[in-house]
Each structure stands twice: as structure tokens, then as C-alpha cells.
Amino acid sequence: MRTVYLNGEYLPETEARVSIFDRGFLMADGVYEVTSVLDGKLIDFDGHAARLQRSLGELDMTNPLTRDELLAIHRELVSRNGIDEGMIYLQITRGAPGDRDFVFPDPDETKPTVVLFTQNKPGLANNPVAKQGLKIISVNDIRWGRRDIKTVQLLYPSMGKMMARKAGADDAWMVEDGYVTEGTSNNAYIVKGNKIITRALSNNILHGITRAAVLRFAREAQMDVEERNFTIEEARDADEAFVTSASAFVMPVVEIDGTKLGDGTPGKVAPRLREIYLDESLKTAI
Ligand code: PMP
Predict the structure, then answer these.
(1) Domain ranges within the chain, ordered by starting residue
(2) 283 in the Ramachandran plot: left (φ > 0), alpha (ψ -120 to 50) or beta?
(3) Bridge partners (DSSP) listed for residue 9
(4) Domain 3-120: top CATH class
(5) How far apart are the CA of 241 and the centre of ligand 1, in A?
């Protein structure tokens, strides 16, 4: 049984309980982060800690934990649960005021709820799906306008993933005003020759921690990076495509809305970026 963290305590997962009045449960009033573990170490911990701080700030919540406290909890859970490869999920909600009300509770009276748990995924780095690539479909992006805040409001991305499953695909890219925003749980890219194209940062997409690292490594490897909008038509015509996220790292996309990219197998650029990302981020893992 897993040991999880809840509000200052390490507990067996079956003993960790949160109030029915928690605003995370009633209103999706909370934020989260997912940090990968490779070789028992945390990948890009400081990137995730910084984004957590920003998400909380945008929602007028204060972080009850310092960066060092957060790091210590992450490490304690990795150690107690013997995680070599996997993820740490962290969620902070506005807490449980003891009743339901749209008005935010007084932060002096209602403390945030802090939950962390591990997900053991042996073989995460050597995921065979990376050799095969993903089939994706496009769906309308009908999410709210602050996708830069990593809230736990994940119903539509979850529905998008189900639409993909029903269509015999693996995942969905969301499209707004004719342009791809991002994947249901990842950032989206296309490749043309030596050029990597991905949507620029704004309130319309999550500022992926993996995205920042991958674009930095791509530039260091002398690849061209163009941060601009692209359409599904342009993507179907691209040499390659891929997605990035903390748990998928870099994952090739081989089919978009039924159109195979190239010969329908991962090309050169995405697998190379995956390799660079895994190598480089392991070097700085803590
Ligand atoms: N976009 C969305 C909508 C996501 O949910 C995620 C992963 N949570 C990402 C992008 C990728 O972000 P990261 O690289 O920080 O995991």
C-alpha cells in the first residue's frame, strides 16, 4: 500500500481523508503539478515548484510550503514508496470552509489542502509507445480562458481523451479559431525539415515545463525553433509531429485525423529530442 502525504502527515493511502466541503471537490478550486522520477530522482523539480507558485498566485492562494519543504516531501514519498521510475502528483486546493459558498473563504480561517502521492511506473523512460508513436485526432478547444493556470479542472481534457479512444486514436489535439492550442495533457509540435514549430506561450495554453526544456535543448542542438500558431492542415502535411509532458517526455505523433505523417513511423527529430531530453534532464535531476 502506498504512503501518501496529506496536510503535514504521511499516511497509508486508505487513511488519507479530505472533507466533502473541500473546494477542490466542490468547485475544482485547486492546482496541481506532476513531477517525474527517473533513477529515483526528481526531473525538473524547480520548474514545477516555480509554476506551482505562479498558479497559486494567479488564484490568490498562498503556498503553505516553501520550496525546500516541498522538495523534502517529494523525496520522502519517493523513498517511502521505493519509486525508481514514476511520478509524484501534488495538489493544493483552497481548502474546506465547512460549507458550500461561491465566495472564497478567509485564508486565515480556511487552510489549503495539500495532497501528494506517488505513481509507480517502471519502464517510464523506455516506454515502448515512443517507438510506435501516437495517433491523434483534433477536437474543438472549449476550455476556459486561463489554461496557463494548472487547475484540477480537467473534465474537458478527459472527454477529449475519450473522444480519441472512441475514434481508435490515442489522444486529441485541441483546436481554437482554426489553430492547434495543445494536446489534452501535453504541448503540441510539428517538424518541417530542421524546424520545430509550436504555439507561443499565452493564457491559451499551459506553459509546459518539458516544453521549456525541450526548446532549450533543441536550440542548443542548432535546430530552428519557431513559436507560432499552426493549423491541423499544416500539421497533417508536416514531416513529423510530437508532444511533450512531464510524464511522456517527448512522444512522437505518427497520425493526425487519419493522415499518416511520412511513412507513419516516428521520424528522426522527435526520437532524437526524446533522447537528448532524457539524457540532459537526468544530469540535473535532484
Ligand atoms: N498542456 C496541458 C493541457 C497539460 O495538461 C500538460 C501536462 N500537465 C502539459 C501541457 C505539459 O506540461 P508539462 O510539460 O509541464 O508536464
Answers:
(1) 3-120, 129-284
(2) alpha
(3) 6
(4) alpha beta
(5) 16
pLDDT at 203: 98
The CATH architecture one would assign to domain 129-284 is Alpha-Beta Barrel (3.20)
pLDDT per position as a tens digit, 190-213: 999 989 999 999 999 999 999 999
pLDDT score for 127: 95
Query: How far is Cα 263 from Cα 258, in angstroms, rounded to an integer?
Result: 13
Cell numbers that stand for 253 in this block: 505523433
Residue percentage of the chain with pLDDT more than 90 = 100
Model's pTM, two decimal places? 0.97
Nearest CA to ligand 1 atom 10: 186
User: Choosing from 150, 161, 268, 283, which is the catalytic residue?
Assistant: 150
Strand partners, 119: 87
48-53 contacts, C-beta under 8 A, 24 or more apart: 48/90, 48/209, 48/246, 51/150, 51/207, 51/209, 52/90, 52/92, 52/150
The residue whose CA has the least distance to atom 4 of ligand 1 is 185
